[in-house]
UniProtKB/TrEMBL annotation:
Signal peptide annotation: none
Matches recorded under Pfam families: DegT_DnrJ_EryC1
Cofactor: pyridoxal 5'-phosphate
Name this polypeptide is given: DegT/DnrJ/EryC1/StrS family aminotransferase
């Protein structure tokens, strides 16, 4: 079976993990600080807080933004459910806004219609690795008095108009899950240019503990004293995984280059199959492609998916619209709410894309797709 995604772990990664697992600190040690600095360096110098997953990063970012009961968060539905679920868990109302037909990213016009005086955060998802129209979304968020959050789980390594992902929004979240552009097995990060937001994120991932006596309410309690001012969780990414992350970050430019080559190879091999819509290629972004998200006529999608699986090709569909999940249906969300995202879902099929995929394997997948459509 050709997998749909697979991590690339080489001897340098293994050596980094081996060194970390025998070091004095397994967690809360120097490898965490080093990894956070490495993430920041890869993301335009915007400081980062490492957490245990992309989901934890979203939860932490929303908490740092003050999302809670009474607030609203605008989210596109063409995403993994965590983008919306973490806001709902904090008590916010999730407002789904539709995506742009060409990119699959949050449509600024739809976002502008979805904001209200209660909107705390507008969340943009970098679908397949491509950022949305960040400048237009920035204006929408600013006009609403809301923060702009970029769910960049797909896009670490992408540069948009010369600016690396991580520095484009008020808050950016990354995922280092095994299938993503770089991995720590499980892991994630929150980035923010705002010292206040970053400090709140750092506190939330460590139980909300306040250790600086200057900030404590009862600093005279004793030298052991630490206190909680706002509830938090334990979302700390251990040193062992941070060491893997720092090692992977050194390989990120090569990962991005190989993903671009593979993606271009798919484009070329599928260009003359009229049923296949290949991904939009933006002029203003240098994209770290996480997915090869093709679109085919909706009546063919399921049969093509089954055909490829039957021939040992791992494929996926990204994504079931988030508001279709029964948990959101039970909150009153309905099919038809975001027709562009829903149609995208009906037509979408993600072909295998990962650093270790060979040119011959891409050709084999494309031959099967071409054969299916009689091309
Ligand atoms: C993977 C992903 C997440 C969640 O990240 P985890 O590390 O798996 O928790 C969130 N949003 C998007 C768009 C993702 O692809």
């Amino acid at each position: 079976m050709l997998p749909y995604a697979r991590q690339s772990v080489d001897e340098s990664d293994v050596a980094a993990v081996a060194a970390a697992v025998t070091a004095p600190y397994l967690t809360t040690g120097p490898a965490v600080t080093a990894f956070e600095a490495d993430v920041a360096a890869a993301c335009g110098g915007v400081p980062a807080v490492a957490v245990t997953s992309g989901t934890a990063a979203l939860h932490t970012a929303y908490a740092a933004a003050g999302v809670g009961p009474g607030s609203e968060v605008v989210v596109p539905p063409l995403t993994f459910v965590a983008t919306a679920a973490t806001a709902a868990l904090l008590g916010a109302r999730v407002v789904f806004a539709d995506v742009d037909e060409a990119t699959g990213c949050l449509d600024p016009a739809a976002a502008a219609s979805a904001v209200t005086p209660r909107t705390a955060v507008v969340t943009s998802v970098d679908y397949a690795g491509l950022p949305g129209d960040v400048e237009a979304l920035r204006r929408v968020a600013d006009d609403a008095g809301a923060l702009l959050l970029e769910d960049a789980a797909h896009s670490v390594g992408t540069t948009w108009r010369g600016r690396p992902v991580g520095g484009l929004a008020d808050l950016t979240t990354l995922s280092f899950f095994a299938t993503k552009n770089l991995t720590t097995a499980e892991g994630g990060a929150v980035l923010s240019p705002s010292p206040q937001l970053l400090a709140r994120a750092a506190a939330f991932r460590n139980h909300g503990l306040v250790r600086d006596p200057a900030e404590q309410r009862w600093p005279d309690e004793g030298p052991w004293h630490q206190e909680v001012h706002a509830f938090g969780l334990n979302y700390r990414l251990p040193d062992v995984l941070c060491a893997l992350g720092s090692s992977q970050l050194r390989r990120l430019p090569a990962f991005v280059a190989r993903r671009a080559e593979l993606s271009a190879r798919y484009d070329a091999a599928l260009a003359d199959v009229p049923e296949v819509r290949t991904p939009h290629r933006p002029a203003d972004a240098d994209v770290a492609w996480h997915l090869y998200a093709a679109r085919v006529p909706e009546q063919d999608r399921r049969r093509l998916f089954e055909h490829l699986r039957a021939h040992g090709i791992g494929v996926q569909v990204n994504y079931v619209p988030a508001h279709w999940h029964p948990v959101f249906a039970d909150l009153g969300h309905r099919r038809g709410e975001c027709p562009v995202a829903e149609q995208w879902y009906r037509e979408e099929i993600s072909l295998p894309l990962y650093v270790g995929l060979t040119d011959d394997e891409v050709d084999r997948v494309c031959d099967l797709v071409r054969g299916f459509f009689g091309a």
